[in-house]
Amino acid sequence: MPASLPPSTSRTRPLAIPRAFTILLLLFGFLVGVKALGAGFKLLGGDAIDAIFAATENPFMGLIVGILATTVVQSSSVTTAMIVGLVAAPEAALPLSNAVPMIMGANIGTTVTATLVALAHMGRREEFERAFPVAVCHDVFNYLTVLILLPLEMTTGYLRRAAETLSGVLQGVVGFDYESPFADALSAAVVPIEFIVAQVFGVSQFQGVAIILVSGGIIFTTLFLLVKVMRSLVRTRVEGLVTNALGSSAVLAILVGVAVTVMVQSSSITTSLLVPLGAAGLLRLEQALPITIGANIGTTVTALLAALAGSGVNAGFGLQIALVHFMFNLTGLAVIYPLKVTRNIPLRAARYLTTLAIRSRRLTLLWVAVLFYGVPALLLFLDRVMR
Question: Do the domain assignments include residue 3?
Fold first, then answer.
């Protein structure tokens, strides 16, 4: 008589199939939201679109938009998905050069989640002293990457050129110009959204605004639910991967960061998971940094998925901005982490900021406010002065 499965296994396996179906359904809904976003901007009209996109011609403004949008929605995945949708929109394309600083800003904005998680330990000094640097090293690393790559991009167009080259290589391997394999299904799914909104607002710019808001809501909701479902599906495996990464080589730790983030579709979850481990003394700052860098790379998968919604002449641009996101994080890894002298910069900065934070709670809160809102305000001021 065959041995019976353990109760936990017998309960989990029947649930795996409906959850997998739910994940596929949510992914399709996510792509519909990205597709509808372009349709909404198309209805705004050329003058309105030009006015909106002209504001991002200055790279500082693009960086501000990326930071603030991500801190508001607490997800760089939502921000990058919307950026991909705008770049790939058939007749309302956000210029690729304007979108690159926005991607950089999203990378900065996403670090706020782990920082807020660390603030929850503020009432327990020893825990806070261990947790805060684990969170802040992500802030410092991403800011440092932007400080290096934004001037380089402004002077040489490095990220755009690299993405164009990589996109060309990928298209050459596939053997045809990039076109979404779901183009017809996505277009059909957008039609009911346009019809319902048209019945309410009529064919006008208000209809375009409504579709943009609805599509943004779809993107946010589907990603939120996708993260929730995937986290429940792989929770035990994620915790095991992170635990096994402790004390392992840096390369393995980076790969674990990539794998966990791809599995849960959120770098914020990965980095936030590290904070309580650091607070408990189970994770040292030197161990947290490579996992954090891996999370940066893993989160680029969302933008690549969003590129699947692209169709028409600008579909390839959607793929290119997704590859810009990938190249940005990969270059940050290559430039900062390999050498000890550069690797120590975010580590020392995180420890120094922690010593300042321990002295005063007000100083800690001020630091968070300046990091995510003061810096954008400063960039806005610089933009006005430069004009």
Answer: no
